[in-house]
Here is the input.
Amino acid sequence: MTHDRRDNTWERISARLDEALEGGLDRVQKESGRSAPALTKLLELLADAQREFQAREIEARLAAARAHRLETDLEQQRRRTDALMRIGRAGSSVRELPALLQLIVDLAVEATATERGLIIVANPSGGRAEFSAACNLDTALISGPEFATSRAIVEQIFRDGKPVATTDAPSGIDPDSAPSIRSLHIRSIVCAPLKNKEGIAGALYVDSRIGTSSLFRHDPELLGTIADQAAVAIDNARLYEDLSRSFSELSSIKSQSDEILEAIASGVVVLDADNTITQFNRAAEMTFGLSASTLVGRNARILNTWVSGFTALLERFRSDSAARAQTEVTGNHFIRGRIVLQVTFFPIRDPQGGAGGAAVVLNDLTDSRALEAENQAQLEQSRRVARSFERYLAPHVVSGLLKDPEAVVLGGTRQTATMLFADIRGFTELSERLMPEEVVELLNRYLAPVVNVIFANLGLLDKFYGDGIMAVFGAPRPSPDDAIRATVAAREILQQVNRLNGQRNLAWPLSVSIGLATGEVVAGHIGSEQRLEYTVIGNAVNLASRLQNMAEPNQILADEVTYEKVKDQLTATRRMARIRGKAALTPVYVLHG
Here is the structure.
């Protein structure tokens, strides 16, 4: 006690006063007389001085206590400010959420001078993570039964959204319901919610086993402020993650789009809303023989040099870009010269609904158009060849040769057909009286309309033999009305002869006899590998030829089979005739109109 009083200024002064009063009282008790009142007065003054000194000492102690409290408050505010500043800096500098959560819980434990800390944040997509970041806490302990009460406090924060703080955790807590509190000797717990605009985003938990009376060490307001700052930082970190993810996805999409654009066989030119060229793929470079570096960033009107009227086409598309527009134009290749292009405009929509850009797809049709022209020329040549060959061969034979030249082989097939033979009567006398040129000219004037009649009735002109013709109706494709068409053709041939005889400049009047016969024939290619002829062979062919020989001028003779097929279409006169090669008389029919 004496040692302590000597070390303290206030205590030393108080001790001197005490010693002076004790010494003065001893002298007053020992002395008497005139000096006693003076000593008494001195003692009173010393007592007053002692009381004044004690009052001043109390005031000094109170002032020191207030100064200490102010110093503590300032330190608390400084550390709070420092913690908030560090969290603020972390929120603006630390972008990865796991690192940010770890930093937040470390700063919370440091700022509150606690021993352990835990931060749990909710998953934005639903559910809640059991563990996000911890400080001085074993992860195995967090999920164990000894941490059950602490987990219950966190659950309460998520449920109620109100902070929980205690500086004397053991008191008022049932030991059976709080084994972690008792077993770990935890004295203080502070848990604050992390709030954002959607609600409770998480919980920030700290606890300590250290017993202290420092208000700063158990400041729930500080932890709440840290939690508020942390919630903002977490939202920013998540926003940054979302933006980074979106940017990565957009970058990936753009990269894929660029790769696809370069892989497209068609030329593609992308224009922005100001008609500035933003992309010019490799196929477009090959289309014009130009480098993309010379065009990207330039206005689209530069393309007028290589695509005639490109700007006008673009303006027309811009005026009504609701759908794609396609046209075919001529262009110029830097080396190859003139090219043919198919130009297609596609609108590119602006996400904000404003005026967007356009994609121009260019297909080089130069080679295909050249091939088309070549094919068309070959087709026209084939038609001319076919028309020429059809003058010598049956049309179906010419068609078959054009489709498959190797398909024509020797041989034939059995089928029913109607044969027509027509011959000019008195042709020998005519040939003797006219010049050869006149005979040929007369034959051509006769044969031209006759051939047209046969073709008009779907007959096959088999051959010319001198002044006669042989036609087949039903080969190579038979039809139920073959005999009817053959009969109509025969009557029309006689009409054409009458019309020809009515012309003034005819050198010699003509008369024709016609024979018709229907029966089974063999139709096919007859001859050799070097020379083939499509014809028909059979009794009906011979019969038709003999009936033609028997017929009178401008008369049609038909066999009985043919008559039975056409008897409902015309009238006829039946007669019996002897036909070469037949022993008995054979019925034949003279067909009338």
